[in-house]
Amino acid sequence: MSKIINKKEKKNIKKYFLYQLKKKLINTSKNIGVACLDFFTNKKIDVNFFNEIEEKLLYSDVGIQTTQEILKKLKYYVNLNQIKSTTFLYEKIKNELEKILLNVEKSFFLNNEKFSIVLLVGVNGVGKTTTIGKLGYRIKKKGRSILLAAGDTFRVAAIDQLLLWSKTIDVPIVYGKIGSDPGSVVFDSILEMKKKNINTLLIDTAGRLQNKIYLIDELKKIVRIVEKQNFIFSFEKILILDANTGQNAINQVEVFHKQLGLTGIILTKLDGTSKGGVIFSIANRFRIPIYFIGIGENKEDLRQFIATEFIRALFNDE
Fold it and tell me: Which of 58, 77, 94, 110 is 20 to 30 A from 182 (CA-CA)?
């Protein structure tokens, strides 16, 4: 029998999750967020003040375009309301940052269709295979059956890692020989999905450098294989990004989205970077849903992205 969680317990769980998120975002928060409280206290509003804001945002990899837009709105707000004290601007910058993130907040639901296929792509080293394992764990907890497909056939380590995850979260996996055609592995996994009546297929792919056109073409081939299937299913194409790469992540989104038509993003390794501000730049420029953020190595450390919760953690709000 499942346990019924009361309101008090739910509140305590939310407090705990917020506390954990605050700890994980501490490095980014030192530059924007918590650092802003002291910075915005009783200072004169002048050119130097706005220059300092710009410096803080750029240092956190918020990006030039997004930073300039935020500054423009702050200056307009100051002039319109004849603001004299910087203290009044603290809530304003929080609100502007939250608005940017609210545009990309979208729950990751797979229950609308009986079958769902999720293709996960990204460059080398972003934590793609690990994220697939964590995502499989989350989806399985929601009551859906899972099948993993080892579409990275070029690295023994990638297949071994996914095999380990299949055992860890107790789900089946389809894989081929090293060097075999990734498209054939994907095709076989779809057949297995239908044969065994499995709800969700998670496809791992080889790490692509976004400037390697022939590797991108291989991904497009996998997409065509999936789209040619003659049964009803939802299809997600999700890019996994490493927050540590800062503004280089923007280039990755541009290429992958142009070539594949991304439906979502997962931003990993936010717990170990001071460059987490890139999330604002990604959200502002592309408006692609950010489904999850990675904040640690444990299987529970893939968290649903909630804009308000993220801002509260960043600014250390209760």
Answer: 110
Alpha helices in 26-127, H assignment, sequence order:
26-29, 34-39, 47-59, 64-81, 89-102
What φ, ψ does residue 101 adopt, rounded to 5°?
-75, -30
Give the least confident one: 108-117, 241-250, 274-283, 301-310: 108-117
Report residue 2's pLDDT band, with 50, 70 and 90 as the boundaries: very low
Closest to 236 measured CA to CA, from 260, 206, 208: 260
Max Cα–Cα distance, the chain, nearest Å: 68
The one-letter code for the residue type at 195 is: K
Decide if pLDDT at 217 tops 70. yes
Q: What percentage of the chain's residues is helix, strand, coil (to nearest 5)?
A: 55, 15, 35
Residue whose pair of structure tokens reads 């940052």 in the numeric block = 97
Give me the residue label for tokens 């990309």. 104
**Do residues 270 and 277 lie in contact, with contact meaning Cβ atoms separated by under 8 Å?**
no
Looking at the chain, which runs of residues are DSSP E strands?
Answer: 116-121, 146-150, 173-174, 200-204, 234-242, 264-268, 290-294, 302-304
In a 13 Å sphere around the CA of 274, the CA atoms on its Cβ side amount to 11
pLDDT of 3 higher than 60: no
Task: Give 102-111 pLDDT, tens digit per residue.
Answer: 999 999 977 6
Global pTM reads 0.91
CB 237 within 8 A of CB 263: yes
28 against 67, higher pLDDT: 67
Mean pLDDT, rounded, for 116-123 = 96
Q: Return the closest-CA partner of residue 250 out of 62, 77, 26.
A: 62
How far CA 253 is from CA of 65, 261, 283, in Å, comes to: 16, 10, 11
Residue 276 has phi, psi (to 5 degrees) of -65, -15
